[in-house]
Amino acid sequence: MSMTRDNLHSLLDRIPDSELSIAERFLQFLSNEPIGPRFAESIRRGIAEVDSGNGVICHDLDEMTERILGHDAKG
Fold first, then answer.
1. Rounded to two decimals, what is the model's pTM?
2. Fewer C-beta neighbours within 10 Å, C or N terminus of the chain?
3. Count of CB atoms situated within 10 Å of the CB of 24
4. 70 in the Ramachandran plot: left (φ > 0), alpha (ψ -120 to 50) or beta?
């Protein structure tokens, strides 16, 4: 799937209000930091996993940290 600004706007519209600050920080990071080939490839792999139905759905940062790192983000 080719990503367009319309696709990104659609994704942003699906983010719950409670998570907008996290999305904003990530987008600011992407816009300020050069993305090297290894990081770009990891992003492409993640997108391909989601497109193939193998993505992990997390509802907030704490759940993501728990699923990825295996422990509570606060402790």
1. 0.45
2. C
3. 12
4. left
Q: What CA–CA distances, in Å, run from 13 to 20, 38, 41, 65, 71?
A: 10, 29, 26, 23, 29
DSSP 74: T
Question: What is the residue type of 10?
Answer: S
Residue written as tokens 């193939």?
A: 52
The model's pLDDT over 13-68, given as tens digits with 9 standing for 90+, comes to 888 888 888 888 888 888 887 788 998 888 888 888 888 888 777 888 888 888 87
What Å distances lie between residue 16 and 35, 36, 44, CA to CA? Answer: 26, 30, 24
